[in-house]
Amino acid sequence: MKNWEKNIREITPYVPGEQPDFPDMIKLNTNENPYPPAPGVTRMLKELQADRLSLYPNPEAKLLVNELSVQYGIEPERIFVGVGSDDVLGMIFLTCFCSEKPVLFPDITYSFYDVWAKLFRVPYRTMPLDEEFRIHKEDYYTENGGVIIANPNAPTSIGEGLDFIEDILEHNQDSVVVVDEAYVDFGGESALSLLEKYENLLVVQTFSKSRSMAGMRIGFAFGSKRLISAIYAVRNSYNSYTMNYPSIMCGAEALKDRAYFEECTGRVIATRERVKKELKALGFSFPDSKTNFLFATHESVPAAELFNMLREKHIFVRYFKMPRIDNYLRITIGTDAQMNRLIEVLKEYLDGCRR
Ligand SMILES: *Cc1c(COP(=O)(O)O)cnc(C)c1O
User: Fold this and answer.
1) Using 50, 70 and 90 to split pLDDT, how confident is the model at 18?
2) Residue 16 carries which DSSP code?
3) Is residue 253 lining ligand 1, measured as CB closer than 6 Å?
4) Strand extents, DSSP E, the chain
5) pLDDT tens-digit profile of 148-183?
6) Of 52, 178, 224, 326, whose CA is between 20 and 30 Å from 341?
7) Is the CB of 105 within 6 Å of ligand 1?
8) How many helices (H) and strands (E) does the chain have?
């Protein structure tokens, strides 16, 4: 090793799901929405003037923040926006988890949390989910430097109710509690109504799943004015212009179309409920999903084998080679046609196994 290399940071990064590019593929591996963004977004993209790109965007992304304020009934001063909720969550780790005490989160959850903790040198402790992949809320009654819970949780798909989240808040008034609601629009219960009561609560959501805009990179957080201004202060100490002009304009446009949003999330939910029945009939079991994916295990065929078989047929699902979950597949809910093809391929393969 050369001397200068000793000054180089070594870190194991988060590994996102692969982004394959085959014309015939069925992509069910990164929980994207199978439907296009709201029609207003397409219109906006056509109207945008390249000339405007010579100017910096509004640093507070005012237009987008104001629309979020209108749609969710929360004051603009209580809203933070960032480049996907990954950016929002990263900024929250940097701003709110500055204690010497460990930040607590489940052992099986969004695998970015421990990566940020290591990157920002935040001490942390993971709390094991129970045998049914449920969060044990009493684990979070202990002293800590912060709590972060994905609700519904990923990759387990399980959503806990409002009472559950409030219980964790009740027991954690001395640290910031973050609820990552990336999947809440697919049937979860949001903690938004608890914001009035708990000024140490942050609720984080994203445009990537329920609003079909993963490619635009928009995430947002709601919290008390005190917390939101602290996060902006940190963000502005790093990069003042994170939200680009097209994202601000298109994001605001997407929010205006509530009917389209409800139609798309409703369709995903209806497909999910149908697919549950069909996968059950094929010998799969899974927790009761409140998300746009199923976390499924098969009674006799190993998940790794199914993952590779599907992959060869250009059907991509997610497989985590990790303790406790290495016999599960995380399958994103696609269109009805995509799910029909998935079921057809699985059925054919499993019939072959039985013979
Ligand atoms: C997808 C996801 C995110 C981040 O998504 P962005 O595209 O960065 O908004 C955050 N948390 C969870 C639990 C997710 O599944």
Assistant:
1) confident
2) P
3) no
4) 26-27, 79-82, 103-106, 124-127, 146-150, 177-180, 201-206, 219-222, 284-285, 293-298, 315-316, 318-319, 329-332
5) 999 999 999 999 999 999 999 999 999 999 999 999
6) 326
7) no
8) 10, 13
Q: Name the pLDDT band for 325 (thresholds 50, 70, 90).
A: very high
CB 105 within 8 A of CB 124: yes
Residue with tokens 């684990």: 139
CA-proximal residue: ligand 1, atom 12 (nearest): 182
The DSSP line for 244-275 is -HHHHHHHHHHHH-HHHHHHHHHHHHHHHHHH
For tokens 């870190």, name the residue. Answer: 11
323: left (phi over 0), alpha (psi -120 to 50) or beta: beta
Can you list the positions of beta strands (E) in 71-118?
79-82, 103-106
Could you tell me the distance, in angstroms and rounded to a whole number, from the CA of residue 144 to the centre of ligand 1?
A: 24
Q: Take residue 160 and report the two structure tokens written for it.
A: 């806990």
- Using CA of residue 108, residue 110, residue 113, residue 114, what is the dihedral sign? positive
Q: Write the pLDDT tens digit of every residue in 30-80.
A: 999 999 999 999 999 999 999 999 999 999 999 999 999 999 999 999 999
Gap between the Cα atoms of 128 and 260, Å rounded: 38
Q: Which atom of ligand 1 is nearest to the CA of 86?
A: 8
**Does residue 150's CB lie within 6 angstroms of at least one atom of ligand 1?**
yes
Share of the chain above pLDDT 70, in %: 100
Q: Please answer whether residues 289 and 295 qualify as being in contact, where contact means their C-beta atoms are separated by less than 8 angstroms.
A: yes
pLDDT at 16: 84
Gap between the Cα atoms of 302 and 353, Å rounded: 12
Q: Does residue 84's CB lie within 6 angstroms of at least one atom of ligand 1?
A: yes
pLDDT of residue 7: 94
267 burial (CB, 10 Å; 0-12 / 13-18 / 19+) is middle
DSSP 3-state assignment of 95? helix
**pLDDT category, 354, cuts 50, 70, 90?**
confident
Give the closest residue (by CA) to ligand 1 atom 2.
182
